[in-house]
Amino acid sequence: MDSIVENSKKLSGAAIAVSPTVHIGILGLQGDFQKHLEMLQLIDGVEARVVRTPEQIEWCDGLILPGGESTTIGKLMARYGIDVAIKQRVAAGMAIFGTCTGMILLASEIENSDQHLLGLIDMIVRRNAFGRQIDSFEADLKISCIEGDSVKLVFIRAPYVTSVGEKVEVLALLDNGEIIMVRQGNCLAAAFHPELTDDTRVHAYFVQMTREAKVPVSKN
Amino acid sequence: MTNQEKSTWRTKVGLAEMLKGGVIMDVTNADQAKIAQEAGAVAVMALERVPSDIRRDGGVARMSDPLTIIEIMEAVTIPVMAKARIGHFAEAQVLEALGVDYVDESEVLTPADEMYHIDKHAFKVPFVCGCRDLGEALRRIGEGAAMIRTKGEAGSGNIVEAVRHMRTVLSHVRKIQGMREEELMTEAKNLGAPYELVMEIHKTGKLPVPNFSAGGIATPADASLMMQLGAEAVFVGSGIFKSEDPAKRAKAIVDATTHYTDAKLIGELSKGLGKAMAGLDIRQLDEKDLMANRGW
């Protein structure tokens, strides 16, 4: 029986490989967008680009908000109308994935801050929640939505989620109950940096989410 | 129980990755730090005096008063860096204990050791170091620097040295990339650089850690120039708070660094910024007054 299940998985995997190319943008205002681009280039059926303007966001079926400095990226998004473009596109079905800073920007609230946010995931986030740079760390954790072995997690001045609304699915927790990965509909957020490892599985999970999103795959 | 490991090489270089495409600004107090953060700086460098004042005042320039650094750390949420003298590992230990996010082993301060730089692998806090050429960059990386910045000439307001150093480093990277493998050991010897790092550059065509630009950036177009020449982020020292309208200039340099290829936008950003810092002609300076010549 096992082998049949394996085979059917392989078949569905093959079907994905021939399905139309999805467009994934990486917001390139600031941060480690190049690292995300390098990851996406390793995944079949993806055309990836760095995007910096509202017009370029129209091209995206899925968008990644990279690691960086959340205050900086938040301000630059607001100055150039990118926040509005992202919200409209997500409402139309675009998938979105934020890592570290990206997680902060997707939140509805940051503790002790009135910074303007996208508010696409109903959660409260604590910034620099593990401490300053000398407290940055790596860990290994089995994440149920990611098939196979445990995932290498890299936390750099990282945030975590202190509370979530009822529509939010918690995908990963650390030992002390810190929420480090969540999903709400087409929106995915991680407190760690899968782009700083050699493992493409988290990015592949997001690519699959983008394929399954409501928005028809863009033609241009 | 998940196994956790703090302050790994990956987390040190990782923070530098997070600062890419951004502007790191020199600040001397909490108010300036807030202005920098509000403008969109990705980090601040906490100092007692900006380089142009250090140059003017003369004397020995040392690590800042910890009170200044703590005041700045409490004022902002972005990373805070601070400078230690070249070779002064005790100053670096103090900065690590204070909890700064990056230590700059900097030629802007008066060197404490003319033979040896700090063993940066021995620290939990990551280090950035200056360089004028590829050999110097690779020696610093070999000692444990997780980020490199080309030196330029700090406190000069003159971009010429920043351009020279960035071109020197990156053209040498391209040269090594195009070499035959048997040429690499001799190249490592000539550079005075670790062979493994020369091999890595040959394979990847880039420096093993992020490479930022410093020393002389004073305008949005200066920032654009350095980004187009291959800098991955910029440090602005005296250029902001020695100008007429720091808040406006800071924001314009941040936006120009993000949209560095958009000449039309950079033109808009450059309008009516008020006077830039006065600046110095490097050719009029004595060799002994050049900060870039400190370190080896």
Please tell me about this protein's structure.
The complex is a heterodimer of chains A (220) and B (296). Chain A has 220 residues and is an alpha/beta fold. Chain A is built from seven helices and twelve strands. Chain A has helices at 2-18, 33-40, 54-57, 70-79, 82-91, 101-106, 201-212; strands at 22-27, 46-51, 62-65, 95-99, 107-110, 121-126, 137-141, 151-155, 160-164, 169-173, 179-184, 187-190. Mean pLDDT of chain A is 91; it is low at 1-17. In chain B, helix 2 runs parallel beside helix 4 (66-75), helix 8 (184-191) packs across helix 9 (195-204) and helix 10 packs parallel to helix 12. With 296 residues, chain B is of the alpha/beta class. In chain B, strands 8-7-6-5-4-3-2-9 form an eight-stranded parallel beta sheet. The model of chain B has no long low-confidence stretch (mean pLDDT 95). In chain B, 43% of the residues lie in helices and 13% in strands. Classes of the chains: A alpha/beta (220), B alpha/beta (296). The A-B interface holds A 28-35, 52, 67-69, 71-72, 75-76, 79, 100-101, 113, 127-128, 132-141, 154-157, 174-175, 193, 196 and B 1-8, 10-12, 14-15, 17-22, 37-38, 40-43, 77-79, 96, 99-102, 124-126, 254-255, 258-259. Strand 7 (137-141) of chain A pairs antiparallel with strand 1 (4-6) of chain B.
